[in-house]
Amino acid sequence: MFAYYFDLALRSFRRNRVLTALMVLAIALGIGASMTTLTIFHVLSGDPIPQKSDRLFTPQLDPATMRGYTAGEEPEDQMTRYDAEALLKQKHGLRQAMMTGGSVAVEPQKSGLDPFYVDARYTSADFFAMFETPFLYGGGWTATEDQRRDRVVVIAKELNDKVFGGANSVGKTIRMNGAEMRVVGVLDKWRPAPKFYDVNSNRFGEPELAYIPFSTSRDLKLDRNGSMNCWDSSTSDDPEGETGVNAPCTWIQYWVELESPAKADEYLQYLRNYSDQQRANGRYERPTNVRLRNVMAWLDYQKVVPSDVRMQVWLAFGFLLVCLLNTVGLLLAKFLRRSSEIGVRRALGASRRAIFAQCLVEAGTVGLAGGLLGLGLAWLGLWGVRQQPTGFSDLIHLDVPMLATTFVIAIVASVLAGLVPAWQACQVTPAMQLKSQ
Amino acid sequence: MDVKPILSALARHRIAAVLISLEIALACAVLCNAFFLVSNRLDMMRIDSGIDEASLATVSLSGCDGCEAADVNGRVLAALRTIPGVRAAGVANAVPFGQRAGDAGVTLDAEGQRFGGVPHFYAFAPGAIEALGLRPARGRAFAPGDFQHAENFLPKDSQVWITQALADHLWPGEEAIGREFWVSDYHFRVAGVLAHFARPNPGRSQNGAAGAEWSVVVPVSADSLLGTYVLRADPVDLPRVAKAAREAVIRTVPEAVFDERWSRPLPELRQDFFRQDRSMAWLLGGVIASMLLVTALGIVGLASFWVAQRTKQIGIRRALGATRGDILRYYQVENFLLATAGIALGMLLAYGGNLLLMKQFELARLPLGYLPAGAVLLWILGQCAVLGPALRAAAIPPVVATRSA
Questions:
Q1: Which one of A234, B125, B146, B357 is at 20 to 30 Å from A275 when CA atoms are compared?
Q2: Around B385, how many Cα atoms within 13 Å sit in the side-chain half-sphere?
């Protein structure tokens, strides 16, 4: 029966080419626009580390002074160096790492290569195991190297290709800011998107190219970057200034991995105790105000998806709705124009249900055609987006779930659009139609 | 013309009439909001940065290990000033549309209780102020003694210029000159007010469009700064001068790492800065155009169907003495009625949609002027779309009435 209705639908399209083309075009435009924006949204709001995003948490503490205090406000997004080092030492989670962004000058010994700056991350040993970074050669360093402030570095594949021509460079040295650093590991391609562990800069950019123990970076006085919030400028006597251990500045990102999501409450209590203890010691002034967010909650809190992108989704679905209403109108016109034909079928014994089914199959076929064309338009739209210098252009691709979503939306939407016209069509009374012939 | 027969005819096609009105209503809602978004973007892209961008360029170093500020600045500025065509050059911490150097929250009291907002702090040496051509609209120019040495962020106690926009925000309706503000224990006193001066990222700071011109200009000595140089030249000469300046800086300070990305003429930086807004404006424009097209096609489709369905009635009306004009007008009035119903609902939807956008995206309230503009546009669209089917209806000869079909 379905095949027969499908054949009838195709015949009806041939009879009314312009009207059919209009319907297909309207659905295709709506689907194309919504799928383009939805794909961007889907990519940007994706889970950067799906296997353990519910077990990775970033704690927030409130170490600022009472100056400018408003009750109920969110605590600082980042940590002070003192707190980060203290939490790291207490090792309360399964794994934990403190980190900050920076940049180092690489001075290659290879001739014909000028010194250049690369973005670096100063972090602690657990970073690699916690974030499950893939290694091409070697591996990360251990807490021992952190403690000894060893001059070791993990470099990304791109930097390894540039400086060592892609060879296994583990054990070799690379000059950074005048210091000889021993390469202990080379990362394979790793692209968490968004770059959840530090959302201060270029949220969808490539991860850093060099990873150095935080302790070593302070020894070598390497440049840091990213945002820093200080509430006091009484750091002039500290030789390390605002990056000193006791500086009243938050600038460290801190992540912890717990055994299971259920351990979060327990860890939160630990943070509260830590905060209370700091206040008892006179370091904290504010009432205890701590947070513990997992990866997705953190990305949501930081509003990582650009508002333009969210706005485009709204707009595109508004547009799709207009297109669908348009299709409802045109289908109605199309079905009722065939009232006499429907009358004959009814008189020959077709039930209302059969007429209804026939109309829905026709609507669904329009949806399928619109979906196919819309997919082409979405592909074109995404190609256009990739030509834009948005910082996330290279990430935007149609994946299988989105491809399936496209067809589901197209067919469901057009069948929904076909409901009212189909119902109207099966109300046709055969006697009236036959009489007026 | 009597609308009663039209209404009773529409009542027989309730579903189709409701559909077309709904489509117009939705189109009206999306159109008004999309137009508003486009105009917001365009307004932002037209922002007056307060400086003569066409004659300005910057050169930037991304890093310089162990460099002495006074030494590097001396060499760079000497090299820049010998380039033919350079009229002025100086060292700055940032320029509009360039890299941000220092956003900081200010308070209106020394205790830090009354929060004022987050302006951008520009630090300029005398040469940079001359090159940028900044002159306060009110208040006084900086005296040589105002350019103090800054140890890390800014001098502890400075006389500054602020923009009119920031003055209006901090002290609405009051004279700003002579007033004070603080950033933790840094103290600032307003010496002059600039008519306009954009922050490096106008419209993208946490205060959005409102904070686009919240800038503070702090005079500092040249040895407090390192790495960003601004120069002025004749606009015609600018591309050549900017290129010569890049080469001169790379040659003069080989030990520093040159910053390609930010060493460009200001018009290029501005172009780059607004690239995303431009593509968003185009995208919104595309949505508006496709929406108008789809709505028009829907009206054409449904009107054609009605005309085909009523061929015989039209013939009878013609036979009973209705003129072609009467038939034409019938369809035009019918469309006008449907459009009016749609627009009335659409205005409510537009307003509701705007409330939703305001909540989600910190957008301004939709100015009421957009609603009648959207209404007129849809009325015109409806009349244009219905014209074709209506003319076809008017062309139906009276003889059709006598045919039995």
A1: A234
A2: 26
**What is the per-residue pLDDT for B189?**
94
Report helix, strand or coil for A396: coil
Instruction: Report domain extents, chain A.
Output: 2-45+306-435, 56-301
Give the whole-angstrom CA distance, residue A130 versus residue A179.
28
For residue B126, give both structure tokens: 């005398």
Instruction: Kindly list the residues from chain B whose CB atom is less than 8 angstroms away from the CB atom of residue A244.
Output: none
Per CB-CB distance under 8 Å, the chain A contacts of B291 are 319, 322
Backbone angles phi, psi at B189, to 5 degrees: -125, 135
Distance CA B179, CA B172 (A): 12
CA B385 to chain CA centroid, nearest Å: 32
User: Is A318 in Cβ contact with B353 (below 8 Å)?
Assistant: yes
- The length of chain B in residues reads 405
Token look-up 């709506």 returns A30
| Plot region of A196 (φ>0 → left; ψ -120 to 50 → alpha; else → beta) | alpha
Residues of chain B short of pLDDT 70, as ranges, are: 1, 65, 362, 404-405
Three-state secondary structure call for residue A158: helix
Q: What is the mean pLDDT of chain A?
A: 87
All residues at 6 or more sequence positions from A98 whose CB lies less than 8 Å from its CB, including other chains: A79, A81, A84, A85, A87, A88, A123, A124, A214, A252, A253, A254
- Residues in A closer than 8 angstroms to B285, CB to CB, are none
For residue B401 the two structure tokens come to 């009435």
B228 burial (CB, 10 Å; 0-12 / 13-18 / 19+) is: buried
* pLDDT at residue number A67: 74
Contact call for A308 and B22, based on CB within 8 A:
no
How many CB atoms lie under 10 A from the CB of residue B4?
8
Sign, Cα dihedral of A417, A420, A421, A426: positive
Mutate to test the interface with A, among B14, B283, B363 (most CBs of A within 10 A): B283
In the prediction, which pLDDT does A223 show? Answer: 85
Of all residues in chain B, the one with the smallest CA distance to A232 is B184
Contacts of A77 (CB under 8 A, 6+ apart): A60, A250, A302
Alpha carbon of A200: minimum distance to chain B alpha carbons (Å): 13
Query: Which residue ranges make up each domain of chain B?
Result: 4-45+276-402, 92-232
For residue A298, what pLDDT is reported? 94
Count of other CB atoms within 10 angstroms of residue B369: 9
Neighbouring CB atoms inside 10 A of B207's CB total 16
Q: Which residue of B has its CA nearest to A18?
A: B301
| Nearest Cα to Cα of residue A208 among A239, A187, A230 | A187
From the number of C-beta atoms within 10 Å of its C-beta (0-12, 13-18, 19+), residue B268 rates as middle
Of the candidates A33, A236, A318, the beta carbon closest to that of B26 is on A318
Q: Which DSSP symbol is given to A208? A: P
Chain A hits for B356, CB-CB cut-off 8 Å, are: 314
Give the whole-angstrom CA distance, residue B251 versus residue B75.
10
Residue of A nearest to B25 (CA): A322
Tens of pLDDT along A110-162?
A: 667 777 889 999 999 999 999 999 999 999 999 999 999 999 999 999 999 99
What Rg, from alpha-carbon coordinates, does chain A have? 31
State how far the Cα of B210 lies from the Cα of B202, in Å rounded to an integer.
9
pLDDT tens figures, A375-397: 899 899 888 888 876 677 778 88
The CA distance from A110 to B112, in Å, is 54
Query: Measured between beta carbons, which residues in chain A are less than 8 angstroms from residue B287?
Result: 33, 315-316, 319
The interface pTM score, or ipTM, of the predicted complex is: 0.76
Neighbours of A148 (CB within 10 A): 13
DSSP class of A48:
S
Q: Considering only the beta carbons, identify the residue of B15, B113, B257 that sits closest to A68.
A: B113
- B297 Cβ under 8 Å from any chain A Cβ: yes
